[in-house]
Design brief:
Chain A: It catalyses: an aliphatic primary amide = an aliphatic nitrile + H2O. The complex is a heterodimer of chains A (210) and B (210). The longest helix of chain A has 16 residues, at 68-83. The radius of gyration of chain A is 19 Å and the shape is globular. With 210 residues, chain A is α+β, with helices and mostly antiparallel strands. Chain A is 28% helix and 15% strand. Chain A has seven helices and seven strands, in the order αααααβββαββαββ. Chain A has two domains: 28-93, Nitrile hydratase, beta subunit (Cyclin A, domain 1, Orthogonal Bundle), CATH 1.10.472; 126-208, SH3 type barrels (Roll), CATH 2.30.30. A five-stranded antiparallel beta sheet of chain A has the order 6-5-2-1-7. A two-stranded antiparallel sheet of chain A has the order 3-4. With 210 residues, chain B is an alpha/beta fold. Chain B folds into two domains: 8-36, no CATH class; 39-193, Nitrile hydratase alpha /Thiocyanate hydrolase gamma (Nitrile Hydratase, Chain A). Chain B has helices at residues 6-19, 25-35, 40-52, 54-62, 64-68, 105-108, 113-116, 118-123, 128-134, 171-175, 180-184, and strands spanning 81-86, 91-96, 144-149, 154-159. Chain B is globular and about 55 Å long. Chain B starts with 5 loop residues before the first helix and ends in a 26-residue tail after the last helix. The relative contact order of chain B is 0.16. The chains are: A alpha+beta (210), B alpha/beta (210). The interface between A and B is large, with 89 and 79 residues.
């Protein structure tokens, strides 16, 4: 079973809800939450991948049943806790005694990329296969493309620290990402629609076509 | 354990960080005020210019964030990059983030509720025509649908097809029909929504409360 957050192609979610809700926020505290997230990242206390991973390893029932902001808040809180910036006790001093903060269990250690910093391995038009299986932990290659073969469209302009490392608060070598285009019916043979899906994947998730 | 206290826990996290001297209230306030400038009106102005100026459009396709700054001043978006994707009568691009809910907020605004829903994240990659149909968008069978899954630090904005009947419109009039939904690719701009020069803004492009 894919990790809870890895939802692409999973059945069972029904009609798209809240089609009319395009506005920027419901209540102002939602922006307070995003401000706190961005300030911590700007100050270098955690990387976006570490925040993402703190959110991803929330308990499955919690992830699937709580609001977007509750998931996000829990990920941010855990990112701050794990960076040692604030303690749960210090946060709870500002809450009514019956309110506790959810804590997600660290998972790890991280897994290395290929440690080929900024090497350009692929060009547009190359056929590539996504590695499968991929190690446990923080992975930014959705389950639905693992083991699948697609065509490189282009390369990201910036090399980025490998998510499998920095998502676990470990140093990671920078790698380029490649936008890889997959035929939808290669991903799901029974898909009603033809067409393609394009996914942006770190070098270490890819091999030359198998 | 009580987990339905998102507002209280958000403010407690903020207050604990401020009490400890990790952030100042001024820093949090400045960040929130910056979010006021992140609206889909930015992306709409960029699309309108692209519809009117082919050279601008070519630069936009090569470098969306840098080129957008010729028209609007979106707040720099961390280490992110952005690509503009042009819809045509043959190809329709539409965006999703299956692993979380990433967007280029400085051009599109905050991700809307439906974009953050588990159903949208799960279904769009696999059955885009059914999902677009729920938004009221029916594409001709020969139009290829490309779904872009935002999995690394590059986001996208869609340049919708310029609707028939907009010949001779000003850039402001053109921008007034470009919505957050059309920048994501789940609807086509509707010429009936036009706001003529000098008219007050509609709720579609304002920062709006619930």
């Amino acid at each position: 079973m894919p990790d809870t957050h890895d939802l692409g192609g999973i059945a069972g979610f029904g009609a798209i809800p809240h089609l009319e809700k395009d506005y920027e926020y419901n209540e102002r505290w939602e922006w307070t939450l995003m401000a706190v997230l961005r300030l911590g990242a700007q100050k270098g206390w955690y990387r976006t991948d570490a925040y993402r991973h703190a959110l991803e390893r929330l308990p499955r029932d919690f992830y699937l049943s709580k609001s977007y902001y509750d998931r996000m808040l829990s990920g941010i809180t855990n990112a701050y806790l794990e960076a040692g910036i604030v303690t749960a006790g210090e946060i709870e001093q500002h809450l009514e005694p019956h309110i506790r903060i959810p804590i997600s269990t660290p998972r790890g250690p991280g897994h290395a990329g290929a440690e080929r910093p900024e090497l350009v391995r692929f060009q547009a038009g190359d056929r590539v296969t996504v590695r499968s299986p991929l190690p446990d932990g923080h992975v930014r290659a959705p389950a639905y493309v693992r083991g699948k073969t697609g065509t490189v469209v282009d390369r990201g302009r910036h090399a980025l620290p490998f998510p499998g490392r920095v998502g676990h608060r470990e140093p990671g070598a920078a790698e380029f990402t490649y936008r890889v285009e997959f035929e939808r019916r290669e991903l799901w043979a029974d898909a009603l629609d033809a067409g393609t899906v394009i996914v942006d994947l770190s070098d270490s998730y890819l091999n030359p076509e198998a | 354990m009580h987990f339905n206290n998102e507002k209280e826990r958000t403010l407690a996290l903020r207050d604990a960080l401020i009490a400890k001297g990790m952030h100042t209230q001024a820093e949090v306030d400045a960040m929130e005020e910056g979010f006021e400038t992140w609206t889909p009106a930015n992306g709409a102005a960029v699309v309108a210019r692209a519809w009117c100026d082919p050279d601008f459009k070519q630069r936009l396709l090569a470098d969306a964030l840098g080129t957008a700054n010729e028209v609007v001043q979106p707040v720099p978006f961390g280490g992110w990059d952005a690509l503009a994707l042009e819809n045509t009568d043959k190809v329709h691009n539409v965006l999703v983030c299956t692993l979380c809910s990433c967007t280029i907020k400085s051009l599109i605004g905050q991700p809307p509720h439906w974009y953050k829903s588990l159903a949208y994240r799960a279904r769009l990659v696999r059955e885009p025509r059914a999902v677009l149909g729920e938004f009221g968008l029916t594409l001709a069978p020969e139009v290829e649908i490309k779904v872009w899954d935002i999995t690394a630090e590059t986001g996208y904005m869609v340049i919708p097809v310029r609707p028939a009947g907009t010949e001779g419109w000003s850039e402001a009039e053109l921008a007034s029909i470009v919505t957050k939904k059309s920048l994501i690719g789940v609807e086509q701009p509707d010429v009936r929504l036009v706001r003529r020069d000098g008219q007050a803004a509609t709720s579609d492009v304002e920062v709006q409360h619930a």
